[in-house]
Amino acid sequence: MASWTSIHRGVYSRRIASLHVRFADEDVCIGPPAARESYLNIPRIVAAAEITGADAIHPGYGFLAENAEFSEICERSNITFIGPTPAQIRQMGDKAMARQTMAEVGVPIVAGTDAIADPAEALHAAEGIGFPVLIKAAAGGGGKGMRVAQDSNDFARQFGMARQEAAAAFGDDSVYIEKYLARPRHVEFQVLGDQHGRVIHLGERDCSVQRRHQKLIEEAPSPALSQDLRERMGEAAVRGAAAIDYVGAGTIEFLLDEDGSFYFMEMNTRIQVEHPVTEMATGFDLVKEQIRAAAGLPLSMPDQPISLRGHAIECRINAEDPRRNFAPSPGTITTFHLPGGPGVRVDTHVYAGYRVPPFYDSLLGKLIVHASTREEAIMRMRHSLASFVVEGVHTTIPFLQDVMEHPGFVAGEVDTKFLERMMAERAPTQ
Ligand code: MV4
Fold first, then answer.
1. How far is the CA of 356 from the centre of ligand 1 (A)?
2. CATH number of the domain that 75 lies in?
3. Which of 155, 188, 288, 349 is the most buried (most CB within 10 A)?
4. pLDDT, tens digit, 9 for 90 and up, residues 280-304
């Protein structure tokens, strides 16, 4: 077992490799399976580019995609990093600094603080904001290193824990405080910038259906936005990205409160797993735009607001057992039958005979459907999930089918607590 970049030369069997490796003209072994020794090992990735004479690296959406040092080393090695500059990655990687940057250009942020170290000062700030508050790691993101403090008695303990967890997870104990919103939606805007000073947005995705900060289902447009709100949020997203002269594909994540207020949460300086729903609903190829931007070409969209057409939904198909608390289910896939038909897209790296390794994220593929209305998209998704056959490993398909039948999902009434509620409803029958 070894790890490959999609350029490979070599002595290793390609028979069991991922599809992108099998389709590649060349491939290079970059080390053993442990990510730290391969996919996260910067010298090995740069060496693979040098061996093959690659002039650019697309970092994907994991591993080194938001690593400023990696983008800097690429730059210094005369390899184009297909993504933003090291400075842009850094400015958004520090979540407390990102909040400040957004506030300066008038993007709404949740009531809160800058990075704060002194417990007494922090308690005073929390009392000013009003409980409950959320203590977040400045170096965090995606839900890591977050603690809720319910009241002032609880605060010192949660503040201490948050700092400890942040230090352990990120080697940086900086934290900041925000007012805790109880049931927000996760609504994120796709932005694109080029090297000629143009920054645009391509509408939003609703990613409220999450479990333990892992997204399971994403859709575009969000069933929660009016056209007026979409325009105001989109304008804020562009203002935020333009504030750092952003180049490439990025995402501005917002929390959308029950009363229709929206607040900047964080910016992801990479293409995201869920980008296909935006591609389906806009008709644009986001990876092509990333490559154009990195090459210094202008974005290819005409100079007019981009509208979302119809409705797109993505389901993430993971090798996990939903009946065993989503435990990873590695092993050999024996049957792999894909759904098809109009408005159906599957992005995957696997096939029958492929062995799902136990070392990485359990994503097997993404099933994306597009239709003229949300109702039709849901029907198309139900039919596609029913004709998606995976044998040999457990998958999240049956669980996704249950979500597609849930009255709350069908009504578009999803927030970040939706799955928790749905699983509590089901618990007695399991
Ligand atoms: C919040 C919040 C409520 N209030 N911030 C989770 C991931 C990280 N990016 C920030 N997160 C949250 N920040 C305030 N002020 C609730 C969450 C949150 C959440 C956000 C989006 C999607 C799912 C979530 C699940 C739990 C908590």
1. 31
2. 3.40.50.20
3. 188
4. 999 999 999 999 999 999 999 988 8
Tell whether the torsion through CA atoms of 129, 133, 139 and 142 is positive or negative.
Answer: negative
Sign of CA dihedral 193, 197, 202, 205: positive
Q: 44 near 38, Cβ under 8 Å? A: yes
Kindly give the distance from the C-alpha atom of residue 15 to the centroid of ligand 1, in angstroms, as a whole number: 42
For atom 16 of ligand 1, the residue with the nearest CA is 181
Six-digit token string for 76: 């210094």
pTM over 0.85: yes
Q: Which atom of ligand 1 is nearest to the CA of 141?
A: 9
Asked whether residue 411 is assigned to any structural domain, the reply reads: yes
Tokens of 144: 């890591």
In this structure, the residue with its CA closest to atom 12 of ligand 1 is 143
Q: Which residues pair with 264 in a beta bridge?
A: 109, 254
pLDDT digits (tens, 9 = 90+) for 28-64: 999 999 999 999 999 999 999 999 999 999 999 999 9
Query: Given the DSSP bridges, would you call strands 175-179 and 389-391 parallel, antiparallel or unpaired?
Result: unpaired
83 and 205 housed in the same domain:
no
184 CA distance to ligand 1 middle (Å): 8
Question: Ligand 1 in contact with 213 (CB < 6 A)?
Answer: yes
Contacts of 319 (CB under 8 A, 6+ apart): 328, 329, 330, 331, 356, 362, 364, 393, 394, 395
Q: What b/e readout covers 150-182, taking b as 16+ CB neighbours within 10 angstroms?
A: eeeebbeebbeebbebbbeebebbbbbbbebbe
Give catalytic residues, as residue numbers. Answer: 270
State whether 242 and 384 are in the same domain: yes
